[in-house]
Amino acid sequence: MNEHVHTVSIQFDSKPMKFIMSTATPLLTPRHVAVIGAGAGGLVAARELRREGHQVVVFERGEELGGSWVYTSEVESDPLGLDPNRKLIHSSLYNSLRTNLPRESMGFRDYPFRRKEEKGRDSRRFPSHGEVLMYLKDFAADFEISDLVRLKTEVVFAGVGEGGKWTVRSRSVERECVDEIYDAVVVCNGHYFQPRLPNIPGINAWPGKQMHSHNYRTPEPFQDQVVVLIGGAASAVDISRDVATVAKEVHIAARSVEEDKLGKLPGHDNMWLHSMIDSVHEDGAVVFKDGNAVIADFIVHCTGYKYDFPFLETNSVVTVDDNRVGPLYKHVFPPALAPWLSFVGLPWKKRR
């Protein structure tokens, strides 16, 4: 096999690091591959596919690469995300968000997320969302992935046809829908944009305001409000602390809370932890399963997201059931369509 290797030198903390870019003649037939999404998963998938000699096109509906790490102050017209005709906002980032993992755990194995002591960079070990976006853009630039990305181009259909080839239909602001044929499709469209909401008895008659965390950006709308926040994961913790800086009261409803942890939270004058909501009522009351109740102005749902692939047609080979995607081998390949269809970035839920 003929092989040519060149190196790319990159400066980190005044120490040059070399990344080997192999142009080895591939062992397998080069394929034409569509990657849907230019977030972290899509960018690294594109790099690895090109390293193997494949022709890659990355489709990104947004105006810049980075996927879920692109922040916008814009929110959807429906704060709960129920209206199917609403304008979709892909980002779920809030302004104050920082990583809940250290940068050593956030980077790709062969491209460390090193701190950069430059103007406009965040050198903290748990950096802001903006620093993560810069890291991804550095990655794309250093490995020359940006040229593969079609920005402002949305995939509206991807389906397998005759001969096992995939038809990918896309549209952009510059042109109407265009159909192209690919050998394979890699789905990297993220999953932080279709809100999941709990079933709460009485919610349709409850008079207060509601929002899903997908549309939370800053705490100012909650000034002097009594806020009930549902959820116990990382975003719920962040948002509750953020909102507590301006709200009159913040009441957190969470599952699996030990009884001795219920009540006023240490270190906070206006935050309480409760069990889950039992019901809500027309007078504004929110009743918790621990027996407590408050008259609330606002409910914020930090209740996660649904997996959603509205563009994907697999003739029911791949389904989403109870928010589990399957059947998938190693959370990546549907056996009946492997290796021509794959998913990158499904963290841990699949049908068993």
Automatic annotation (TrEMBL):
Transmembrane domains' residue ranges: none
Family that this chain belongs to: Belongs to the FMO family.
Enzyme class name: oxidoreductase
Pfam families: FMO-like (PF00743)
Cofactor: FAD
Enzyme Commission number, as recorded: 1.-.-.-
Recorded superkingdom: Eukaryota
Entry protein name: Flavin-containing monooxygenase
